Amino acid sequence: MRIITGSLGKRQFLSTKSRSTHPMGDRVRSAMFNMLGDISGLTVLDAYAGTGALSFEAISRGAKHATLIELEKPAQQIIQQNIDLLGVADKVTFIPGNCIGWSNRNEDVEFDLVFCDPPYDSVLITSIEKLARHVNAAGLLVLSWPKHVGVEEVGGFIVVQSRCYANATLVFYRRIR
Length: 177
Prior knowledge:
This protein is α/β, with parallel strands linked by helices. The chain has 5 helices and 7 strands; from the N terminus they run H-E-H-E-H-E-H-E-H-E-E-E. The protein has helices at about 25-35, 55-60, 75-85, 100-105, 125-130; strands spanning about 45, 65-70, 90-95, 110-115, 135-145, 155-165, 170-175. Strands 3-2-1-4-5-7-6 form a 7-stranded mixed β-sheet, with helices on both faces. A hairpin with a 3-residue loop joins strand 6 (about 155-165) and strand 7 (about 170-175). The longest helix is centred in the middle third of the chain and has 14 residues, at about 75-85.
């Protein structure tokens, strides 16, 4: 895998061989960041970090800081190796563990962008809604959802954009004011 553009553009990073993670491909990741536009100075929560691809791309494109949370042990090892390989330890916080457990212990922590790209075989809208509480008032929740499921409602949010790709739908949500 590689970083698409920005300060780390074209740099390679490691991926897992696990079937429980599904790294977002270059095409979908590129489309997602193009839809987001300028993310300079923003803070990011990558709730189901996998390889860390979304966080590393965000840092490369100017995000101020990314917090990565990953439960799966092999993916945790890959993330730590990628942090070292890319030299981004000063711009990321890596939390090995369950993102919902972290969310329950950190209810008041907010971010400009919350990325949710959960394993498609265990997607629960209740989990996504818990993670949505970490989106600040001006922020966005970005969900990568299985294409066959369709767009889900998230309590307290409206869909501002959605796009379908090969096996995924990207959905952008903004808090209802």
